[in-house]
Write a structure and sequence with these properties.
Chain A: One of its GO terms (cellular component) is RNA polymerase II, core complex. Chain A: It is found in: Nucleus. Chain A: It comes from Prunus avium. Chain A: This is DNA-directed RNA polymerases II, IV and V subunit 3-like. The complex is a heterodimer. Chain A has eight helices and twelve strands. Chain A is of the alpha+beta class. In chain A, helix 1 packs across helix 6. The radius of gyration of chain A is 26 Å and the shape is flat. The N and C termini of chain A lie close together (11 Å). Chain B has a six-stranded mixed β-barrel with strand order 22-36-23-34-33-40. A five-stranded antiparallel β-sheet of chain B has the order 5-6-7-8-9. The relative contact order of chain B is 0.07. Among the domains of chain B are: 71 residues, no CATH class; 68 residues, no CATH class; 180 residues, DNA-directed RNA polymerase, subunit 2, domain 6 (Dna-directed Rna Polymerase Ii 140kd Polypeptide, Chain: B, Domain 6), CATH 2.40.270; 105 residues, Beta Barrel (OB fold (Dihydrolipoamide Acetyltransferase, E2P)); 83 residues, DCoH-like (Alpha-Beta Complex), CATH 3.90.1800. In chain B, strand 33 and strand 34 form a beta hairpin. By secondary structure, chain B is of the alpha+beta class. The chains are: A alpha+beta, B alpha+beta. The interface between A and B is large, with 40 and 39 residues.
């Protein structure tokens, strides 16, 4: 296999990009790479999340573990996470969360003095580090910031109090879902839809309309001027085969030909807000590279060659 | 302890002897206390509003109906009984035909059985020692000639043929006259029940002869099992009786039932009959009209008005057989006599929680009725103020996406007992065989199936006869036992909020060494011994002391109660169930990235094997999935009440499918799914959507058990049995067979012969009989013949060979035992 190269140059084209949402095309690669990217985004891009809670006073209706669990799931801004240390690898401390390299301290003090119930939210968490704070959703949701109050942790009635210290640490989604920066990461194969115009012309107007309507998503449209069926949004197609079945039912098999392009993918990434969607992708590529480096480094040894065989040689030879 | 009210009696009695009689009156003498049913009209909670109940610390959703006795909630249970005064005909074990009746009045209760054995008919009554031939009884009652008897029973030749063997039998005994028969019986005959009113044309018994009783064109009228007489026009009579009932002239629970087959009209007013209210229809036209319903809505009319106005009536099981009940008004024909008020009332509270139960195979609904009670959830709004001995709560309970009307009526939507899980029906990983389910780790991280387990532990500060009592000491902060004592407060009791592990001390208690005999005043420290109570929770888990309560028990001892809380996340082996009797354990937990996903980004919480469907035929579960999926995408809770489709209380599958298509899903609920491991699309479309899942209270943590060596029963010296006693696990016949088949004979030898209770006996090979002598009499060689022992009594020292030389071998044999 020496000399033969499997190298490809994948291309990325960004379609849409917001802080917490991104849609992009990934072309000239295969499902394994696309899936690796997806998996890393979900499970291996590090973020910071509350991991240790010391409760001083809790007279709320929720018990200590309950509150600790809720605190853990609050997304914290984690742009610094890539450069932070894991507590277990930290040599400045023994991972007990007292050091600035691996942890961030939070404080929460809330007491209800009025007759109205007090909502304790993520806004009440005071961070010791201004780069790691609970994610603020107020602007992106398009509501007024005074209305939007963050994520509710617990509600207090008169006289109830909550006072605690929390330590946030770096971690990955594989260990606990609270460290996953991805709300949704998914991809689809780009469909290639070809309408057989010859057969289509044989249909009556009503038949064409019925055929267009048979798709649960709006993939096709009927143009009343040209009296033709056009593909308006191929990506809306969910590979449900409904139009194909409909064509067969109408006695016109082969009316439309839909194939999934094996080498191009449309990704949708939604972030929890811990890192920006675009940064999530970059971090994921970085993590993927590190993982490949780990394989490449171990490839120097004989055992690794035994283990990876052809793959090791392939990576060496490029 | 007890929620009760005093029973007060005004007493009047006469005091003094014959000439000096005085009448004494005492008012309001308390003779006892009667428990009060909660939320009854005598209860303080009766008629309170939600906020008033909240102030009292009570849950507004609690329906009441129970009693509080010695701090425990007690409920009255219904019992099933054979109906009294009714003739029940059945076959006994020997195949004899029996007709029995339990006659019961205020004073007496007796059972009469008429049995047919070998063609002959006998009477059995507990007053008689033996079976009495029926003819003897007849003659004793004054029917001396056989002719008379036959007339009384009925002149049909079939009856006569039936009686023939009995008549012959009686003649053989030589009984012909009443006196002879009475002498035979040697017991008295007592007279029968008083008679009732006959205004509706019932001809009384006394005006009828035996012959007339059996005329085919008139019906026997029975009231609570007693014969009143005969009526020539049973339907007329029944209609008149029903009219009286609807007019409120007789009780609303009186049932009138015409049995055409038995030529009888049964009227019943006794208790224990289950009655259901139904709308009365005249020739298929409902008596309840639009304006009645408007009045009901306006609050002018109540349910009782419907009853008293004769729009609705109660039917019992018998009378239901005389009626034709339409499920819906539209289905009523001219023959219809009644219309269901609402078909979902056919089911009770527990079965009412099942969505689309009428699409399921009926045993599945039965299973769910048993399982719904084991589901965890929230039990009441005041659940955290309670001190139950065992309480399971769900951390994030949800309201089912697919609800029923019953759910809303009973408040199940306010105190859910499950969570809406996105379920993919597919095979995955092989850890999903035999109903096991595959769970998504990320879902569990986020709180799916998380539960709180609360258990109460008690300790008593005992007082003793010699005026001494237990004492509770301040814990040692350092030195011996300071580790397990770290959860203790300064008062020597575990402090709420502390994390507690197995073998930590709950209470630092000391007991006086001498607790009997002479009275003692002050004891010094040396007269106490330490008996701390330790927490015996699961090994390796950290629990929390939730609450500590102090109270006094019935002997007035100080009593401490600790509520220990443990939050658990689901693990492999925990039991889950949907609402369709489909239970399964968690087979494996898989990372989210390995889970399949759709191009919308939907990733299931749970994967269920499709083999669960064909044999169970739980179509309702599939419709629940469809309805849940459409409900979640269109933002409206869907309904699945029993038989609710025509009445609008259940969404139709067609409508659900239309919604699904409108929201961009396939009409059949199947999705195009990618494998999370490879990123390639799956070969099949996957049926995926939300189903309400319950976590059942059977969790591995409470059941898991294994041991090496441990305690033994002192009597047999075999290992103890059961988890609570740290017992051994039985290697039974089948386990033994497995090991033999596998060829692990050394393991088997070790388990059965050595690890349990190694025991050796001597076998005398010539006749293969065992002899049990203590082993010190034998040399320690196994299976080696020896000649120096003879079978003597163990008390005697065996003397050197006399007999033994004659015989060939003694063998030492190990006896196997089963617990290891």
């Amino acid at each position: 296999m020496e000399g033969k190269s499997y190298q490809r140059v994948p291309r990325v084209k960004i379609r849409e990009m917001r802080d917490d949402y991104m849609k992009f095309e990934l072309r000239d690669t295969d499902a394994s790479v696309a899936n690796a990217l997806r998996r890393v985004m979900i499970a291996e891009v590090p973020t910071v999340a509350i991991d240790l809670v010391e409760i001083e006073i809790n007279s709320s209706v929720l018990n200590d573990e309950f509150i600790a669990h809720r605190l853990g799931l609050i997304p914290l801004t984690s742009d610094r996470a890539m450069s932070m240390r894991f507590s277990r690898d930290c040599d400045a401390c023994d991972g007990d969360g007292q050091c600035e390299f691996c942890s961030v301290e939070f404080h929460l003090r809330a007491k209800c003095h009025s007759d109205q119930t007090l909502d304790v939210t993520s806004k009440d968490l005071l961070s010791s580090d201004h780069t790691v704070v609970p994610v603020d959703f107020s602007d992106s949701a398009g509501m007024e910031s005074s209305e939007q109050k963050g994520i509710i942790i617990v509600k207090l009635r008169r006289g109830q109090e909550l006072r605690l210290r929390a330590i946030a640490r770096k971690g990955i989604g594989k260990d606990h879902a609270k460290w996953s920066p991805a709300a949704t990461v998914t991809f689809m194969y780009e469909p290639d839809i070809r309408i057989n115009e010859e057969l289509m012309d044989m249909l009556t107007l009503d038949e064409k309309k019925a055929w267009v309507e048979s798709s649960p998503t709006k993939v096709f449209d009927f143009d009343p001027k040209t009296e033709k069926v056009v593909v308006v949004d191929p990506e809306a197609y969910t590979y449900d085969d409904e139009v194909i079945k409909k064509a067969e039912a109408m006695g016109k098999p082969g009316l439309v030909d839909i194939i999934a392009k094996e080498d191009s993918f449309i990704f949708t990434v939604e972030s929890t807000g811990a890192v920006k969607a675009s940064q999530l992708l970059l971090n994921a590529i970085e993590v993927l590279k590190q993982k490949l480096d780990a394989v490449r480094l171990s490839e120097d040894t004989v055992e690794a060659d035994d283990q990876f065989g052809e793959l090791g040689a392939h990576m060496r030879g490029g | 302890y007890r929620y009760s009210a005093p029973i007060k009696v005004d007493v009047e009695y006469i005091q003094g002897s014959h000439d000096q009689k005085t009448r004494v009156e005492k008012k309001g003498v308390v003779i006892g206390r009667m428990p009060i049913m909660l939320r009854s009209c005598s209860c303080t909670l009766y008629g309170k509003t939600e906020s008033e109940l909240a102030k009292l610390g009570e849950c507004p959703l609690d329906p009441g109906g129970y009693f509080i006795i010695k701090g425990n909630e007690k409920v009255l249970l219904m019992q099933e009984q054979l109906s009294k005064n009714r003739i029940i005909i059945d076959m006994d074990k020997k195949g004899n035909l029996n007709a029995s009746v339990t006659s019961s009045s205020e004073r007496i209760k007796s059972k009469t059985i008429i049995q047919m054995e070998n063609q002959k008919i006998y009477l059995m009554l507990n007053q008689f020692v033996k079976k009495i031939p029926i003819m003897v009884v007849m003659k004793a009652m004054g029917m001396e000639s056989d002719q008379e008897v036959v007339q009384m029973v009925g002149r049909d030749p079939r009856y006569a043929a039936l009686l023939m063997p009995s008549i012959e039998d009686c003649a053989k005994e030589g009984i012909h006259k009443q006196e002879q028969a009475l002498a035979y019986l040697e017991t008295k005959v007592f007279c029968v029940v008083p008679l009732f009113c006959y205004c509706l044309g019932v001809e009384g018994l006394e005006v009828l002869s035996g012959e007339e009783l059996h005329t085919p064109y008139s019906f026997l009228v029975l009231f609570n099992g007693n014969i009143l007489g005969k009526h020539r026009k049973p339907q007329h009579f029944a209609a008149a009786m029903r009219k009286l009932r609807r007019a409120g002239k007789i009780g609303e629970f009186v049932s009138v039932f015409v049995n055409e087959k038995q030529h009888c009209v049964y009227i019943a007013s006794d208790g224990g009959r289950v009655c259901r209210p139904l709308v009365i229809a005249d020739k298929g036209i409902s008596r309840v009209k639009e304006h009645h319903m408007l009045e009901l809505k306006a609050g002018v009319r109540t349910f009782d008005d419907f009853l008293s106005d004769g729009l609705i009536e109660y039917l019992d099981v018998n009378e239901e057989n005389n009626s034709l009940i339409a499920l819906y008004e539209e289905e009523a024909t001219t023959e219809t006599t009644h219309i269901e008020i609402e078909p979902l009332t056919l089911l009770g509270v527990i079965a009412g929680l099942i969505p689309y139960p009428h699409h399921n195979q009926s045993p599945r609904n039965t299973y769910q009725c048993a399982m719904g009670k084991q589901a965890m959830g929230n039990i009441a709004y005041n659940q955290l103020h309670r001190m139950d001995s065992l309480l399971y709560l769900l951390v994030y309970p949800q309201r089912p996406l697919l609800t029923t009307k019953t759910i809303e009526l009973v408040g199940y939507d306010k105190l859910g007992a499950g969570q809406n899980a996105t379920v993919a029906v597919m095979s995955y990983s092989g850890y999903d065989i035999e109903d096991a389910i595959v769970m998504n780790k990320a879902s569990l991280d986020r709180g799916f199936g998380r539960c709180i387990h609360m258990k109460r532990y008690c300790a008593v500060n005992q007082k003793y006869d010699n005026n001494t009592q237990d004492r509770i000491l301040r814990p040692n902060r350092d030195g011996f036992d300071s580790g397990p004592m770290r959860v203790l407060d300064d008062d020597g009791l575990a402090a709420p909020g502390e994390i507690i592990r197995r073998n930590d001390i709950l209470i630092n208690k000391q007991v006086p060494i001498v607790t009997r005999g002479q009275f003692k005043s002050a004891l010094n420290d040396s007269e106490f011994k330490s008996v701390p109570q330790r927490y015996d929770g699961p090994q390796g888990e950290s629990c929390v002391v939730d609450k500590v309560a102090l109270c006094s028990d019935k002997h007035n001892n100080l009593c401490f109660k600790f509520l220990i809380r443990h939050t658990r996340r689901p693990e492999v082996g925990d039991k889950f169930s949907s609402r369709h009797g489909q239970k399964g354990v968690c087979g494996t937990i898989v990372q989210q990235e390995d889970f399949p996903f759709s191009e919308r980004g939907i990733c299931p919480d749970l994967i269920m094997n499709p083999h669960g469907f064909p044999s169970r035929m739980t179509v309702g579960k599939m419709i629940e999935l469809l309805g849940g999926k459409s409900g979640v995408s269109c933002g409206r809770f869907h309904y699945g009440s029993a038989f609710g489709e025509p009445g609008g209380h259940a969404d139709k599958v067609e409508a659900i499918s239309e919604t699904l298509v409108r929201m961009g899903f396939s009409y059949d609920g199947k999705d195009f799914i990618y494998s999370g491991i490879t990123g390639c699309p799956l070969q099949a479309y996957i049926f995926m959507g939300p189903i309400y899942y319950q976590k059942l209270k059977h969790m591995v943590l409470d059941k898991m058990h294994a041991r090496g060596s441990g305690p033994r029963v002192s009597l047999t010296r075999q290992p103890t049995e059961g988890k609570a006693r740290n017992g051994g696990l039985r290697v039974g016949e089948m386990e033994r067979d497995c090991l033999i088949a596998y060829g692990a004979s050394m393991l088997l030898y070790e388990r059965l012969m050595i690890s349990s209770d190694p025991f050796e006996v001597q076998v005398f090979t010539a006749c293969a009989s065992l002899i049990n002598l203590p082993s010190r009499y034998f040399p320690l060689h196994v299976n080696k013949p020896f000649y120096d022992v003879i079978p003597t009594l163990p008390s005697q020292k065996p003397n050197i060979p006399t007999l033994t030389k004659l015989f060939s071998h003694w063998w030492t044999v190990r006896i196997l035992s089963v617990f290891i």
